[in-house]
Amino acid sequence: MWLTEFFQGMVGTLTSGGHLKLYFLNRAEHYMRENRTRLQQFLESIALLAESYIVVAVAMPLFLIVMLVIMFWVSGSGAQMSEGMLYGIVLGFIPMIHVAYAVLVYTSSKEQEM
Q1: CA Rg value for the chain
Q2: pTM value?
Q3: Is pLDDT of 78 > 70?
Q4: Distance CA 99, CA 92 (A)
Q5: Euclidean distance between the first and final Cα of the chain, in Å?
């Protein structure tokens, strides 16, 4: 799409007798501004993902584990279930969160390339 626009502009400049060097400089500046805007938007979305990653994948599991340990420690009941639950969180839930965020970052970087 942008390539056809570029070549059509080049042909139009040549047929009208314009300066091709000036056209190339203007197009280069235009594409550079467009690229900066896209990169800025991409960086803002990655920053949002990073903030949510810290909350969801780092802070929440830590608080959850500490709260569960204290609850089962204080209550004294369900000691077997608490151990299995903690293993489930540490070995299942936390890695799934990390994989999900890795996939999110990968897909957003693939969208950026397009």
Answers
A1: 27
A2: 0.68
A3: no
A4: 11
A5: 12
